[in-house]
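W.,

You were right to be curious about this one. When I first looked at the sequence I had no strong expectations either way, so I just let the prediction run and decided to look at it fresh. Below is the sequence, 219 residues in total, followed by the output.
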Amino acid sequence: MTKKANAQAGGPAKSLLTPDNCSLLLIDHQPVPFYTVQSMDRQMLINNIVGLAKTAKLFALPTVLTTVTAVSFDGPLLPELQAVFPDKQPIDRTSNNPWEDERVVSALQRAGRQKIVMGGFWTGNCLALAVLSALEDGYEVYVVADTCGDVSAMAHDMAIQRVIQAGAVPMTWQAVMLELQRDWAREKTAPGVKDIGKHHGGAMGQAAIYAEAMIPDGK
């Protein structure tokens, strides 16, 4: 038996994400790296990125957006993502590693959250470097694998394996959303979660639409 089982069983694990214990870092979702992504369907990738961004906005997670060489090479933030945060200016940098930019680190430090949820391009470059650096600085990092992309499935998979071996926790964007909600009695965010699911959740969204149509009173 574990120490917790001996003392007091039940209750949520401390490792679970909550709206007040995590922040979000979205790294370099820009046209040039996007063109080169071959690790998953790119339209689905946009869908997932936007779903995660809307989730962060719904739960009021401190969110940091970054770009790299936006003007000189890689282009602006994906417009679908920028539209979720129209007033949030991405931090543009020259280093491949966002954690080597003091503005990025300072923004996350100001958020005061020990857990950082991350997604970005490429999985094996800018994303992995940030994950490894944040882990070394003592943060708990959750990598949203289906909001990341690389030049091949192998490049993506090897990067995910690398960060897992270093201590990062792999997740999907819907898992993040449902973990933050966790209890449908939380009426403040439940409608928003269902709406995000309808628009970005694939089968989950279709199930929600069907349930509402067939059982409109929820009974």
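Here's what jumped out at me. The first helix runs from residue 3 to 7. And, maybe more interesting for your project: The chain has eleven helices and six strands.

Coffee later to discuss?

I.
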